[in-house]
């Protein structure tokens, strides 16, 4: 009986992993979108199929949030596009992850803890 239970847990875990993989692929990313805003952005857009990342930049007291390409998430490409030379930035690849650095980290940590809890419950 114990061997059967372990096999069922493994099957359930495999199904969950496959579902997560399918659910996370094939959909358009959503990112916050604001230009030169002094406060956190509340507007969001669906990104183009060529845009696979969300970008947030800070320069002085202003923030710009938008859809972006992960392959262009570097100082040089961002500086050329926005014509800036002194800014902070980060890119991420989950829906609405570019609202703020702290929140993005907290959401990532929360996601990891949720998955680990689910795995622990299955085993």
UniProtKB/TrEMBL annotation:
It is found in: Membrane. The keyword Manganese does not apply. Keywords: Disulfide bond, Glycoprotein, GPI-anchor, Lipoprotein, Membrane, Signal. Interacts with T-cell surface antigen CD2. The keyword ATP-binding does not apply. It is a lipid-anchor; GPI-anchor. PROSITE patterns: LY6_UPAR (PS00983). Residues 1-28 form the signal peptide. The gene is CD59. GO terms for biological process: cell differentiation; complement activation; negative regulation of activation of membrane attack complex; negative regulation of complement-dependent cytotoxicity. Coiled coil: none annotated. This is CD59 glycoprotein. The lineage of its organism: Eukaryota, Metazoa, Chordata, Craniata, Vertebrata.
